Amino acid sequence: MDKSSTGVNHSGSAVSSRGRYVSGYTTLSSQPSSNLPENPLSPAWHTTLAITTTAQTMTRNRTNNSYAKKKTHHSSTLRPQRALFCLTLDNPVRRFCIRLVEWKPFDVIILFTIFANCVALAVYTPFPEQDSNDINTNLEKIEYAFLAIFTAEAVLKIIACGFLMHNGAYLRNAWNLLDFIIVLIGIISTILTDLNTSQSSTLDVKALRAFRVVRPLRLVSGVPSLQVVLNAILRAMVPLLHIALLVIFVIIIYAIIGLELFMGKLHSACYFTNSDGIREIEQVPRPCSNTTGYNCPTNYECLELWEGPNKGITNFDNIGLAMLTVFQCITMEGWTQIMYYINDSVSPSWPWIYFVSLILLGSFFVLNLILGVLSG
Fold first, then answer.
1. What residues does 83 pair with on adjacent strands?
2. What is the pLDDT of residues 19-28, one digit of tens each?
3. 242-295, pLDDT tens digit by residue?
4. What distance in Å separates the CA atoms of residue 178 and residue 271, rounded to the nearest whole number?
5. Which residues contact 81 (CB under 8 A, 6 or more apart)?
6. Which residue from 181, 185, 191 is spatially nearest to 207, judged by alpha carbons?
7. CA 165 to mean position of chain CA atoms
8. Please, what is the Cα angle at 227 between 157 and 169, to 5 degrees?
9. Could you give the CA distance from residue 234 to residue 80 in angstroms, rounded to a whole number?
């Protein structure tokens, strides 16, 4: 009797355990619990279920704690207890500024204002001697509205984030620093312009007003994707410096080779001596040679009196102009014409080796390394 009762009790607990196990996931059938198989779960299954439940609970708690820590750290970093030494987080003015700065339409409004300012700068037409027209006059009035909006944005962000003295402050962000400098220069130029107009002063503020063209850079601070691109370019400055040194090295090497091979070769041209004894150059001058290069037509003679192609800029007479000529070839801008000039003045048989190797090494390889650095 004891064994049977024990078996019944044990079987009942197994049914109950199996019922809890099934109900914990899904209902297998609509049959009553008495029809479930009366096979008890093994101790290994109970241990496995307990371990799984404990692990899930610990993972969930760990995730919640990590999120809470990140949220607290983010809040404490960007929102200090005091801003401008007097405005606490409980201050109603600061709470309003924080809500307004974190409001998504606020960023959209500022972005559209920047676009409108760019359009206004594009429409503005500068005139000499401080002259103007009706469009420029209206744009000068609209400039006050743009300046007021940008100044209000800077003030709101300073109140919300603080100015400078702690992590996450307004000026600790490089893009905010750029915005602040642009706003400050705009305020100074506007004040000086008003003083210049009211006092009939001769103070020239055009230099400060020219800084308004920097305002389109504020689009970078409003578009995160542009920030990613510019930050990638800035991080690539050191590798790009190494590539630039390699490019300069290649230019110097080929410039020295050009000095040895082609110095003074691009100043010969075909001249015709008229009846008055005056020498006249060909209508379309080109380098010439009395030996293996280009031979002058009849009644023309090859003389070294020409200043050279491109007003004498394209030549290999000194290291500076030689480097400039090599750089032009590397950019592949008119390099074939320079090669033809050298062929006319020297020989068409071998100078192509110099220019083709320059294009392959300098243009196709070295300059494309810059794209490789930026893409990496």
1. 87
2. 444 444 444 4
3. 888 888 999 999 999 999 999 988 998 999 888 787 888 888 889 998 888 888
4. 60
5. 88, 89
6. 185
7. 28
8. 30
9. 29
